[in-house]
Amino acid sequence: MRHCIFLGLLLSSFAGWGQTLPKYDSTMKIGKSGYRISCINKATDRNILNIRPIGFKPEVREVSLELKGRVTNAEIDDLNMDGFPDIVIYILDKDGRSTILSVSSQENERLIPIFFPDITNDMVLSKGYRGKDEFKLVEGILFRKFPVFEADTAIKIPTNKVRQILYRVVQGERDSWKFKSFKIFDTPIN
């Protein structure tokens, strides 16, 4: 009997090896300042994202936001070139579309959002867009890549092109920051 129970426990522990845990929890720093990002990622339509500043003034508190999606990754960099760490958090919504949420440190005294434009509001960038985005942060530049589809058809297979958009953070209105596209190009898939 004890052997059966032991064997059952052993098999159930091996069964969980191939599965990934949905929770996201990561700490990232530049020097002594940074962020701890955590999200349980239980449901695809509602999650709580926690952003805890590290190395900031004591009065700067953790921020909790409700997401309609799951956190897949995060990266840290000085996006606005002010000498303080900023964070980009990658989110996958229930429809499989990726987006980002970004926060900037204002001299490690407070957190402010960095606004990211909705691609569907730009006729040029969104032509042939149907999601499947990939994002990557490289030396302060945000790269976005997605397959291009025929614009006005119901064809579900993408063309043989991939669109890449490069964004940088620029000053917005009233001491705010925003991502602005500065380069776009379509490349053939090899």
Describe this protein's structure.
The longest helix has 14 residues. The chain has 1 helix and 12 strands; from the N terminus they run H-E-E-E-E-E-E-E-E-E-E-E-E. It is globular and about 55 Å long. The strands form 2 sheets. Strands 5-6-7-8-12-11-10-9 form an 8-stranded mixed β-sheet, with no helix packed on it. Strands 1-2-3-4 form a 4-stranded antiparallel β-sheet, with no helix packed on it. The protein has 190 residues and is mainly beta. The chain has one domain. The relative contact order is 0.12. The chain is 7% helix and 48% strand.
What structural category do the secondary elements indicate?
Answer: mainly beta
Shape: globular
Distance between the termini: 58 Å
Rg value: 20 Å
Number of domains: 1
Give the helix proportion (percent range): under 10%
Biggest sheet statistics = 8 strands, mixed
Strand content: over 45%
The beta-strand count equals 12
| Spatial order of strands in the largest sheet | 5-6-7-8-12-11-10-9
